[in-house]
Amino acid sequence: MEFFERFMVPHPSFLIYMSMVLIALVSIALVAVVTYFKLWGYLWREWFTTVDHKKIGIMYLITALLMLFRGGVDAVMLRYQLSMPENAFLTAQHYNEVFTTHGVVMILFMAMPFITFFFNFLVPLQIGARDVAFPRLNLISFWLFFMGAMLFNLSFVIGGSPDAGWTSYFPLADNEFSTSVGTNYYMIAIQIAGIGTLITGINFITTIMKMRAPGMTLFKMPMFTWSALIANLIIVFAFPVLTVALAMGAMDRLFDTKFFAIGDGGMDMLWANLFWVWGHPEVYILILPAFGLFSEIIPTFARRNLYGYNAMVWSMILISVLSFTVWTHHFFTMGQGAMTNSIFSITTMLIAIPTGIKIFNWLFTLYKGKIVMTTPMLYSMHFIPLFTLGGVTGVMLAMSAADYQYHNTMFLVAHFHNVIIPGVVYAMLAGLTFYWPKMFGFMLNERIGKATVWVMSTGFVLAFIPMYITGLDGQARRMYTYSEATGFTTLNMVSFIGAAIMAVSFGMLVWNIWYSFKNSPRNIGSDPWNARGLEWATHTPIPSYNFAITPDVTNASSEAFWDMKKNGVEIFKGDIKKIHMPNYSGLPFVMGVFFFILGFAMIFSMWIVAIIGLIGVLGCMVYRTFEKDEGFYIPEEEVKATEKKYEEMYKKRGDK
Amino acid sequence: MAHVDHSKPLEYATEENDLKIFGFWVFLGAEIMLFGTLFASYFALVDRTGTGPTAAEIFEIGPVLAETFILLASSFTIGLAIHAMRLGSKKATLTFMGITLALGLAFLSVEMYEFVHYVHVGAGITVSAFTSILLTTLGTHGLHVTLGFFWGLSIMIQIAKRGFTPATANKTFIFSLYWHFLDVVWIFIFSFVYLKGMM
User: Fold this and answer.
1) Does B176 touch chain A (CB under 8 A)?
2) What is the pLDDT of residue A21?
């Protein structure tokens, strides 16, 4: 291919030209607005260089919501294409690209940053720490993730999107069958974001193991922190596998190595195995923090302690171990023989046991509770039945003999959306609504919020239940069209209507944020939900040092704040002292930019530019090792003055 | 600035140092998974030589033994460097670190020769799945040694300029963990790649 030809989109269409124009216009508008309001300095000083875990968390949140929009547009396009037989809205190639990016964006660039937002925002507060163990590294994680995400999103206007599915199986993903640079984007953008995630994992394991408040033993940790610990352990042990797989895939495409090639001894099944050795634990990296959030929300609004704390913890540990033993169930039909399939069938079905334990524990928490049906609680109440349905169809799929009927059909698509949406997405939105007042000092409107849940669940059921039926009738996944004679038309139209209704519900969420920003009262105090965890024992907005006095939970349970409120347990003992804080730094951003340059140059095989990018990355590391950075102290008087200001503010506003 | 606890060795003396050592152990956990994946892939691909040579045809015991002894010796000298650091001898620490890095460089030179040899006998990285995984596994280890070389060098400069502070002692100790780890990985490469391949 000619050098400049590679930068062109290989299969341009009106839609892609339109998005190019839109991207250009939105970028110009953003730059203009920021420049007009003279915000560059503010953004740089307060956000791009921040090492404050709360602000880094909010940057993850913003990215996740943007990516939710992008992946959602993909989803609606897919469903519209299939709503009518022989639809000419998308071509086969364009359809391939859209389902590939929908999957990658939703899993890696929406769900992952969303849970990382919760890790960042909640974990240090729940364990009574001032920040994470390595604040600077935390910012590097964010910028690597962000640059990876942006690089990936660049693909559909420069060079073409990846089109081999989010699983990117070889030999399909090799140069011979995926001729554009799209799959290079896949291999390299995900690699950069993945390194960021791995660093996050190391950071949070260290934070949770080493920085808990005095008196907080492992079995007195809040349930979300437990889920975060286990998810991060899975990250550290699963992501290196992806690192190797992506490196091999990139080398096959760029340097003509023969790992997954068709001839010369290459082994395409090695990719499938490595991908899913990472990919299946990845599912639990997403769902365990979601379980953790539900375990925070359900006791709060059932006004009861979480039922079966120990069982909850051990079931998560069991899930994390089993998650590494089931990967083959993603390709039962790809020839490993009856014995292997049977073993993986059994390990897969075993996961239903600890998951079932968790479902029953939530139900027992509700039993005889004084349930307050707030928006986060409503999400949780919709989660339990819908997720259980998804879990049961998962057990159906786990039976390898029966899987030959379901494999690669819409039944499978219905199943994994049925666990991911009510599981992960509902948890994220419930958690977002629950912690919104803690972050921004006002509550989201409850009426709009509850209506959103109902609209979303209606859309969800309409969109995905029909897929179970068409899947059993033989509608294959990833097919861009079908003939009228198949009889799939009506159900696919219903599915499209469901997707459109879900789109409306996300619009309602955005509307709710705007409406509440305008209308919600600000004098809500620091505990508007009458909640239970240590994270609610701070002021709102949370001061940069989180807790003026490090909490001591020796005499409290895992719900320390509840013990303080209801039983008068003293948590904040001793006097205010000077507080050690980390310095802000611009280096992580610079490093992220060099990673972006390196990645972009590798995608297009521009080796001189790639070497410049690499030198930049290494230069940042050398600079860091020679840098003297010992942080700074907030003096005792300043902490006291800040604390006094909060008291005055509460009094003036008349907070509860 | 931070609180220094003199009852502990200098590299553990502040809370930050303690966190960094713990964090590095977690990182080594990830590294074990990384090399574990490479080994698993190696075992899957070792007999898939296509039209290219097999392991027994290209391996030579000479350079491999040299690499092994050089790297094992460097693991010993980095241990001596840490011992010297605990005794507070700057000069001995720098000397042993210097020897360690020189051995690292010698290792890399032999490995470079070895790679040139493989290309020469028709076992370049693009020849077959076996040569791809062989050179990637060895190359990943070699890349770690190369990065370690420059990292160690920058730490030596810091010790020379700033002496033993909680920060420099911490870096030296963590570097020694890294270096020992690379040695352990090499022992697996020596046993399961070379010896098994030559049998």
Assistant:
1) no
2) 87
Average pLDDT for A429-441 = 96
Tokens read off for A426: 């509902």
Residue B1 lies in a domain: no
Residue B1 pLDDT greater than 60, yes or no: no
Total Cβ atoms within 10 A of residue A573: 12
Distance CA A95, CA A91 (A): 6
Question: What residues have CB less than 8 Å from B173, skipping those under 6 apart?
Answer: B11, B21, B82, B85
CB-CB under 8 Å, B34 with A243: yes
B106-155: pLDDT as tens digits: 999 999 999 999 999 999 999 999 999 999 999 999 999 999 999 999 99
Q: What is the count of structural domains for chain B?
A: 1
Domain that holds residue B150: 10-198
| DSSP character string of A552-598 | --TTS-SSHHHHHHHH------S----EEEPPP-SHHHHHHHHHHHH
- Cβ neighbours, 10 Å, residue A587: 18
- Mean pLDDT, range A408-425, rounded to an integer: 96
Average pLDDT over residues A421-433: 97
Average pLDDT over residues A586-592: 95
Interface A-B, measured as beta-carbon pairs within 8 A, has a size of 120
- Cis preceding-peptide flag for A376 (omega within 30 of 0): no
Could you list the beta-strand ranges (E) of A32-147.
none
Mean pLDDT within A417-440: 96
- C-alpha A226, offset from chain centre: 17
Chain B hits for A267, CB-CB cut-off 8 Å, are 44-45, 48, 129
Is A264–B127 a contact, with Cβ atoms under 8 angstroms apart?
Answer: yes
Question: Which residues are CB-neighbours of B195 under 8 A, at least 6 positions away?
Answer: none
| pLDDT (tens digit per residue) in A292-312 | 999 999 999 999 999 999 999
Tokens of B33: 């998974």
With CB atoms and an 8 Å threshold, state whether B136 touches A248: yes
Left if phi > 0, otherwise alpha if psi is -120 to 50, otherwise beta: which for B131?
A: alpha
Our CA-based measurement puts residue A259 at a distance from the nearest CA of chain B, in whole angstroms, of 5
- Domain containing B41 — which CATH number? 1.20.120.80
Place of tokens 């859209």: A98
Task: Give A656's pLDDT tier (boundaries 50, 70, 90).
Answer: low
pLDDT per position as a tens digit, A608-620: 999 999 999 999 9
Any domain includes B102: yes
**Those residues with Cβ within 8 angstroms of residue A653's Cβ, 6 or more apart along the chain or in another chain:** A522, A523
Q: Please name the residues in contact with B198: beta carbons below 8 A apart, sequence gap of 6 or more.
A: B55, B56, B59, B61
Out of B18, B51, B150, closest to residue A264 by CB: B51
Residues A500-522 have a mean pLDDT of 96
Residue B5, in any domain of the structure: no
Determine which of B4, B18, B26 to mutate to test the interface with A (most A C-beta atoms within 10 Å): B26
Q: What is the pTM of this model?
A: 0.95
Chain B positions touching A239 (Cβ under 8 A) are 30
Task: Write down the ipTM of this complex.
Answer: 0.95
Please count the other Cβ atoms lying within 10 Å of the Cβ belonging to residue B111: 22
Helix or strand holding residue A634 (H, E)? strand A632-634
First and final CA of chain A: distance in angstroms? 68
In a domain, B68, yes or no: yes
CA distance A73 to A98: 9
Rounded to an integer, the average pLDDT of A522-531 is 90
Of B23, B38, B171, nearest to A244 by CB-CB distance is: B38
Q: Residue A625: its chain B contacts at CB < 8 A?
A: 151, 154-155, 158, 171
Tell me the average pLDDT across A413-432: 96
Q: Which residue of A has its CA nearest to B130?
A: A265
How far, in whole angstroms, is CA A547 from its chain's centroid? 27
